[in-house]
Automatic annotation (TrEMBL):
Catalyzes the conversion of GDP-D-mannose to GDP-4-dehydro-6-deoxy-D-mannose. It catalyses: GDP-alpha-D-mannose = GDP-4-dehydro-alpha-D-rhamnose + H2O. The gene is gmd. This is GDP-mannose 4,6-dehydratase. InterPro entries: GDP_Man_deHydtase, NAD(P)-bd_dom, NAD(P)-bd_dom_sf. Belongs to the NAD(P)-dependent epimerase/dehydratase family. GDP-mannose 4,6-dehydratase subfamily. Residues 7-315 form the NAD(P)-binding domain. One of its GO terms (biological process) is 'de novo' GDP-L-fucose biosynthetic process. Keywords: Lyase, NADP, Nodulation. Its EC number is 4.2.1.47. GO terms for molecular function: GDP-mannose 4,6-dehydratase activity; NADP+ binding.
Amino acid sequence: MNSKIAFITGVTGQDGAYLSKFLLEKGYEVHGLLRRSASADVVGSRLKWLGIADKIVLHDGNLTDLSGLIRVLQEVRPAEVYNLAAQSFVKSSWQQPLLTGNVTGMGAANVLEAVRIACPETRFYQASSSEMFGLIQEPIQSEKTPFYPRSPYAAAKLYAHWMTVNYRESFGLHASSGILFNHESPLRGIEFVTRKITDGVARIKLGLQEKLALGNLDAKRDWGHARDYVEAMWLMVQQDTASDYVVATGKTVSVRDFCKFAFEHAGLDMEDHVSVDERFLRPAEVEVLHGNPTKAKEKLGWEAKTSLKELVIEMVEADLERVRRDQHL
Ligand code: NDP
Ligand code: GDP
């Protein structure tokens, strides 16, 4: 067991929870940034779900508050910082473009600044996104594919990505950017299409609702499991030289097919339940994302382990259990 200290922003999110569990199992002391909420009991629900809430040291703070970030890093002195915090929902970024810019873009610059000032030897990981490829410039996207962001979220992530590259090149920080394609799990936020579908399937199966309204069923994504993807983050940080990596499964599937698998697993036919509602369409769509994870495989020895069908089954089963428990069924 080593006694390394890791500091995670976004520790209460999907990836923060899985990464914390992964690092605890590796013997790390895990610290996380917690943005204050009047609903503190709800905020830690993912960490509780994984049974690790009491194993993490939480520090009050916000990605938009630079002096607070500097103070907490001076106090914790982590060996590794993982910047996972963001306003992460693409659709909301059109409703809150400036907040998204402040948190998802400038927030990352704040963390980089705090590392540079408080602990420049600390290794840094930035949670970049395949959304930066947006209107794709190549059918399969790698680290060399030009970017074309299609939302305020993607534009903010692109700024954070280039700041990470720039701080590596300007100040010699060990700063890596993981360009992660969509990754899901039972802990995915309910507003994202995969969880919305598996939660809807569970409610329909248990007789609590009849219909599920979705947006663009033809959009295609390269979906993996968050549990697999957090390992790639850690591997990047362990390399002698910091760099940027695409993390993906290398397979792309439509929302319609994801939906079909989820309904089928519950013994249902999506045609009987799914409708398209314009409210869930986007001002500018990312029609297809398809990653090429060759560099991650060759340099990190990383590969996605969970198949799409295994992911769908795990999510549907977890939602069935959650809905039964919540509804006392
Ligand atoms: P989540 O939305 O589940 O988690 C986001 C986290 O950021 C939460 O802990 C949230 O806190 C925190 N946060 C939001 N605003 C602030 C703020 N102002 N100050 C401090 N913390 C804040 O995201 P995921 O876990 O799914 O994703 C992790 C990161 O990876 C994100 O940056 C996301 O954009 C990026 N990413 C995700 C992909 C995916 O498919 N999941 C794909 C590519 C990139 P709270 O709990 O209080 O809301
Ligand atoms: P994103 O790739 O980060 O935007 O992740 P989402 O899960 O939010 O969306 C993935 C794709 O599913 C996008 O192309 C959406 O347009 C599409 N989609 C179709 N219906 C829905 C829906 O009801 N909700 C969400 N969130 N996305 C939907």
